Amino acid sequence: MAVAIFFALSLSLSFPTSLSSLSFLSLLRPQNSRRPIHSFLHPIAADQSSPGPARKTKISVSAMIVVFPRPLSSLACLLLLGAAEVQSAYYKIDTPDNIRESARTLAYDMMLFYVGNKTGGIPGVLPGPPPAGNYYWWEGGAMMATYIDYWHLTGDSSYNKVIMEGMLHQVGEKENYMPANHTASLGNDDQGFWGMSAMLAAENKFPNPPDDKPQWLALAQAVWNTMVDPSRHDKTCNGGLRWQIPFANAGYNYKNAIANGCFFNIGARLARYTHNGTYADWAEKTWDWLWGVGFIDHENWRIYDGAHVDSNCTDINKATFSYNSAILLQGAAYMYNFTNGEEKWADRVGKLTERILADFFPDGIAFEVPCEVREGACSPDMLSFKGYVHRWLSVVTQVAPFTRDKILPVLRTSTEAAVKQCTGGATGRVCGFYWSKGAFVDPAVDKTTGAGEAMNVLAAVSSLLIDEAKGPVTNSTGGISRGNPNAGGGRDNGQKELRPLTVGDRAGAGLVTFLILGGAVGTFVWMSVFE
User: From which residue to which does the signal peptide run (predicted)?
Assistant: First the structure.
């Protein structure tokens, strides 16, 4: 009689001599996996029920004793192997149908972080900002875009109503994505993320809002119009957008790649969509500024984070974040498309592609260089960058098809690593951040199971369907969104209009100014890492 005993913690095994424990262990490990054997055997919570998508079968063992009346046969070993492997393969991405099913489950789980569609919740935003929750206003806009792409790529419209509600709720008083209640954390990049989401809705033919509401194209134009206004561009550093919009915000004295990258990206896409050369001229001018100030390295094509106006932008912070590179690559790809393959844009797209894949996809797996080298070093903002990079690079292959053979295999390898580590939580499908580890990292060790991490994997899996999807439309190739080239009100720096001061007002003006500036510096958390 043969007895096989499995312990989740110690993994003690007893087999007859006809099958060595070593050979069984090699079978137990999935092919090409770096995960230790014991990570496949986890105790599961007593309550395995969950609403939402139908669950795939999952077998997980805390302690199991199997008694056989005769020596283990090869078939019995294979059955044990199958039982042990089930937990490690919740999400399947081997066929388009399996990709859609996996994306559907990931979309459901991601929506659990969102409270904007619940009683008392605020549509369009994730819980926050700190200390009320982990997420700043801009990440809600990024989430909206992730679900717009999800709908476009999978055809699942389950969340369209929620996304439209959130997108429209946050447009602000002037319908330019500058709501007054988010002034304290209102950066050009924050506004820009919402503008890019509106642009994406227009390009993907997301259902139009009601006629009495602002339309997607008009919202993207409104954001661009406020960004291009002279009030946002000063002579320091020879031009360029500052990071923050209101002068009282911490970070107002910083000009960075992401703020100008958003402006460049939206402009390039508006140029292609509307065939209006003014947008392209400004995109070109913004690229030239980024190149001239040194945020784009002339030798290695790395994108540096930014610099301070006090030093005339000579103190360049050389932190390299993946989304800085990806947002410029996508914008450059749109300019390549708009210019019908102009050589200089082809060259820029090619060099940025090579640098991004080399730096941020070591071994083909997404890796956030500035912070992922140490557990716990990534902020909630940084924990969401991988998803944007996957989404943006997938679209690059549509508008600049010569990149397809380089980019798509890497995105698939990266996504395979992403889903392999989605084995956490009571459901056995919670996703973490450290894709290259090949194993889920316990949130008790490093709390990386939030909205950004879930959004990353949803974006990566959905983007695998890019080859089946139609490319971004224009107003001459099927676009259905109405524009308004004068939308947004132009000059808007996020400050409230001030009435003339009275004598009584002047008495407390100094104290009030001190409190406002001090409060902003004390409460605002920077998105960038400063060394």
Answer: 1-21
Calculate the CA dihedral of residues 107, 113, 116, 120 and round it to 10 degrees.
Answer: 140
Question: What is the pLDDT at residue 445?
Answer: 85
| Spatial distance between the Cα atoms of 425 and 45, rounded to a whole number of angstroms | 9
Cα 295 to chain centroid, rounded: 22
DSSP 56: P
- Digit-coded pLDDT (tens) for 364-419: 999 999 999 998 999 999 999 999 999 999 999 999 999 999 999 999 999 999 99
Range of the domain at 60: 2-89
My answer on whether 215 and 321 are in the same domain is yes
**291 and 372 both lie in a single domain:** yes
Q: Position of tokens 């419209």?
A: 157
Boundary (domain end) residue, out of 468, 491, 507: 468
Span between the terminal Cα atoms of the chain, in Å: 64
Q: Are residues 22 and 136 in the same domain?
A: no
The answer as to whether 481 is a domain residue is: no
CATH number at residue 414: 1.50.10.20
Handedness of CA 165, 136, 418, 108 (dihedral sign): negative
Residue type for position 141: G
Q: What is the count of structural domains for the chain?
A: 2
Pairing of strands 2-7, 254-256: unpaired
The answer on pLDDT for 527 being more than 50 is: no
Q: What is the pLDDT of residues 53-82, one digit of tens each?
A: 544 444 343 444 444 444 444 444 444 444
* Residue 102 pLDDT greater than 90, yes or no: yes
How far is residue 377's CA from residue 278's CA, in Å, rounded to a whole number?
41
Specify the 3-state DSSP secondary structure of 256: strand
pLDDT in tens, 337-373: 999 999 999 999 999 999 999 999 999 999 999 999 9
Q: Determine, yes or no, domain membership for 493.
A: no
Q: Are residues 129 and 32 in the same domain?
A: no
Boundary-marking domain end, from 447, 468, 489 = 468
Quick one: pLDDT at residue 62?
Answer: 40
Domain presence at residue 43: yes
Give the confidence band of 336 by pLDDT, cuts at 50, 70, 90. Answer: very high
Mean pLDDT score of the chain: 83
Residue 68 in contact with residue 1, Cβ under 8 Å?
yes
Q: Which of helix, strand or coil describes residue 2?
A: strand
Nearest Cα to Cα of residue 238 among 181, 185, 197, 295 = 295
SS (H, E, C) 397-421: HHHCHHHHHHHHHHHHHHHHHHHHC
